[in-house]
Fold:
Amino acid sequence: MLIVLNEDVDIAVAAAKAAFKRGSEWRKLDASARGLLLLKLANLIQRDVDYLSKLESLDNGKTVADSVFDIGCAVDTFRYYAGIADKSCGRTIPADAGLFSMTRREPVGVVGQIIPWNYPILMLAWKWAPALAAGCTVVLKPAELTPLTALAVAALAKEAGFPKGVVNVVPGYGPVAGQALTLHNDIDKIAFTGSTVVGRLILEGAAKSNIKRISLELGGKSPLVVMNDANIDEAVEIAHNAIFANHGQNCCAATQMAQKRKVGDPFDETTQQGPQIGEIHFNKVLRLVNTGVKEGAKLQTGGSRIGKEGYFIEPTVFSDVSDDMTIAKEEIFGPVQTILKFNTLDEVIERANNTTYGLAAGIVTQNINDALVFSQAVQAGSVWVNCYDAVVPQAPFGGYKQSGIGRELGEEAMKEYLEVKTISIKL
Ligand code: TAP
Structure:
């Protein structure tokens, strides 16, 4: 028998369950009315962008400009799902045996959502918007390091008029609050973003409890391939932004841009890169940098801490990296770029696919044939041609292999929050 110990989680789940009950205010709302509530929430987030962006930067350390950008993307996400809330249709089916069969898409129920610290408000939007558009109720556990904007947006959800119990936030530690959600028998689905290690625990928890539905958005080690016909200035810019926007892709760029990058106070308007999220992560990135040096990669620039206070790391570029080096295999999740050489497209495709991950990949080339061959052959949920990190609310995003299960964004994400019911009528 499973024992759930976290009382706050129990209270939030009970509230979400009551709000989902047949005949509740939320269940009686038309789908279009749910869309209008999402639209109102989007407008309130936009109204408070100044406050929310500063709160996000205070909590996370990213620059205020980056927080403003993330919030714009969150607003766009809520608006997109506001628009499709009432467009989730079933089918009529030419069934055998004289049956008139049709399908309905119905909300999964009470959804637990667990998100990381890298994009707190944006990850919230990716989780809440499709779940609420689908008609689910939600209990969100933000990352312990970055809970503030989730609480602020929950207050805005109340102001927008979401009925009581529909939207819940439970800050807390992963192994406590996160685990309690994962094991809870009244949670019908968990949507998770974070590490592959914890993703496995979520799958185990679902199996051990009530076979709850699962979607997982996990780590990546995503290659950006620069072909020799690429416009090199364009390629440098794409590669620079691809890695230093704080993801962790293998890619290819010149060092000058990294050297010019301004690191420091996230509240200073000229800053391009703030500190790492905290001491543990800071030490992990520096440890991986040291491993890169020890294993023989060439450190072109950076590699050290900046100053003595805070967790600032120099933008770092390694060249002469080989596939067997730790920095080529492990997700670094810091401002560290690794450059690997290749000879042919077939070779680079094989090497790109030789990983347990499959989140994303990119190619910079003028040759449409190479772009299409690469796009079809690479095992990744997103492929970007002559751009990188081009993530928009309308198009699905998610991973192959150990980068995840299911998709976020687009119509696909809404389907993750819907069950299909078949109704057959004997004529
Ligand atoms: P995780 O440790 O996976 O944390 C993500 C979320 O899961 C947090 O809310 C965390 O809570 C929670 N959690 C931790 N242990 C849990 C458990 N046993 N049961 C349920 N929930 C649990 O990731 P992180 O610490 O944010 O970062 C670690 C690594 O994950 C990174 O270095 C990176 O490789 C990867 N990561 C990937 C992504 C994406 S978008 N794919 C995003 C962030 C991180 P706490 O905050 O309390 O720990």
Residues 114-118, 141, 143-145, 173-175, 178-179, 182, 193-195, 198, 201, 217-219, 331, 333 surround TAP (CB under 6 Å). The two ends are 46 Å apart (CA to CA). The first strand starts at residue 92 and ends at 93. The chain has a mean pLDDT of 94.
